[in-house]
Amino acid sequence: MAIAPSKCFLSPQTLTNRPSLLYFPAKSPSYVSFSTPKPSTLTLRKSAGPARISAASTVPAETHAGASSESKPTVLVSEKLGEAGLEVLRSFADVDCAYGLSPEELLARISRCDALIVRSGTKVTRAVFEAAKGRLRVVGRAGVGIDNVDLQAATEHGCLVVNAPTANTVAAAEHGIALLAAMARNVSMADASMKAGKWQRNKYVGVSLVGKTLAVMGFGKVGSEVARRAKGLGMHVIAHDPYAPSDRARAIGAELVSFDEAISTADFISLHMPLTPATSKVFNDETFGKMKKGVRIINVARGGVIDEDALLRALDKGTVSQAALDVFTAEPPSKDNKLVQHENVIVTPHLGASTMEAQEGVAIEIAEAVVGALKGELAATAVNAPMVPAEVLSELAPYVILAEKLGRLAVQLVAGGSGVKGVKVVYTSARDPDDLDTRLLRAMVTKGIVEPISSVFVNLVNADYTAKQRGLRIREERVSHDGPPDVPLDSIRVHLANVRSKFAGSISDAGDIIVEGRVKDGVPHLSLVGSFGVNVSLEGNLILCRQVDQPGMIGRVGNILGGSNVNVNFMSVGRTVARKQAIMAIGVDEEPTKETLRKIGEVPAVEEFVFLKL
Ligand SMILES: NC(=O)c1ccc[n+]([C@@H]2O[C@H](COP(=O)([O-])OP(=O)(O)OC[C@H]3O[C@@H](n4cnc5c(N)ncnc54)[C@H](O)[C@@H]3O)[C@@H](O)[C@H]2O)c1
Ligand SMILES: O=C(O)[C@H](O)COP(=O)(O)O
């Protein structure tokens, strides 16, 4: 049963909240630090890009972003990136363009880099994240496919992976269509023959496209653009994609069909799915065997979706009459690769995204995403972290700080030796559960619980992973509340189950450590400890005292702190019944000495007390 606090404000509330970084550790270098030299109010800066949490102060944002060269982050660009993207990067970071590094050279250099930008040619393996020794915070993939980045290792190391998913879509689709037409009309073979001095008009008779069936395998961004263009060429387009909505296909005039129907009825098959464990070698002896004899195959997706030995056999048997390949299992393929040398195969060296326009677009898209992520913004193209829309982030900002501080407080109340395992987070809100995205809040509670008791840093990328690794079971509960729905939350309550507390007053009737907080005027406040209602702003440090409720207690403890030059910024008393038990919550700017704390403990009515760092 919560008891209403009796309020006692000793000094005006100061606003010194320092928002925690969403992606990166508090120990990050200064260019991503939001600490302010003066008390400041928390504001959210809204720009064209994603929302950025920052602390408004007399120091301009640019100073926080760290223009001084010694505090600039370092971005390693390991493959050719468009000049416009490099300019965006240079305005914020030291940019190291080191194209064509060997894997060993990359490992040797990576611990000096905060971000790495790659295309498909750099393998960002677990060894890269390990060699980075915690410094690498963002990997930017200047393109779509992230099969060359070990996402699991990135997540485990708290490293954000962002990509540039849209800028090369049209280029890839156009290349697919170019290969389709060039293959059907034997353009590259005829060209090579003429350059060899021949004139072979009968040898290079092709096939027409109009009226033929094209199966688009993977109806995403590139696949649907290929389908749209193929319709314009008069082809009958069918598509297979287990996750694509049929109305999107219908709108283009394509029909979604099963895998077997697609491959067995098509004259041309164009591949546009990602390389995943499910799609690896999905075109193999068995599936080639189901295809219409003489089928033609185009691959601008990933080499690994085809079993290349099986394709060679199918070409030799004539099951597949021609193939046009832009991508290969190993890139570059060996010089004597039999597929590359095959007379019925045309090849390009992974050129799908290689247009001037696409490369400029991709470079800008990835540079902006990487700079934003280095500043602590939530990236819209995050691959291994939840994407939290700017509006959601904006309204949750003070609750994000509250969630971390509650986690931090709760774990400090645990008695040494009793490991934290079961955590319950209760959100009281007037909102419909579907309108309240709590992933960010859960991540911040985890950060608050884990960081004070370990050397691990926790961010939005690795919060759930870290919780799981440490055996923390975090359960979330929603309690509905009759308040205005424009306020996202009334309160957040953190329960730690099955632990002993070093401050008995924090244990609820049900036996859990409980701390609850609310946001008041944009500032996080502690509103409940155990069964005692309090009202103290969560800033600086906190002393909790459980005492016999009697007159003069505030003055006595206040005098001890004042005598030791410890500034009290807020104080509140919560009690069960008048003149029985009470909890005094005292916000202090400085950390009291042991001697000062001992004196507080010696006040006769004080039964227990604890000092907590926020
Ligand atoms: N050659 C190049 O230079 C080049 C350029 C751009 C993209 N790509 C590659 O093209 C592919 C598609 O890119 P995108 O931007 O269209 O990606 P996308 O994510 O927009 O589309 C991929 C589609 O594949 C579907 N899919 C997933 N599993 C499937 C399965 N088992 N069977 C059928 N469909 C499945 C998904 O539902 C999705 O709709 C990726 O592999 C990407 O790396 C290559
Ligand atoms: O996935 C992609 O975006 C394409 O395969 C392009 O890869 P690239 O950046 O290496 O050209």
UniProtKB/TrEMBL annotation:
Its main location: plastid. It catalyses: (2R)-3-phosphoglycerate + NAD(+) = 3-phosphooxypyruvate + NADH + H(+). One of its GO terms (cellular component) is chloroplast stroma. Keywords: Amino-acid biosynthesis, Chloroplast, NAD, Oxidoreductase, Plastid, Serine biosynthesis, Transit peptide. It comes from the Eukaryota. Pathway: Amino-acid biosynthesis; L-serine biosynthesis; L-serine from 3-phospho-D-glycerate: step 1/3. GO terms for biological process: L-serine biosynthetic process. Residues 542-614 form the ACT domain. Its EC number is 1.1.1.95. This is D-3-phosphoglycerate dehydrogenase. It comes from Iris pallida.
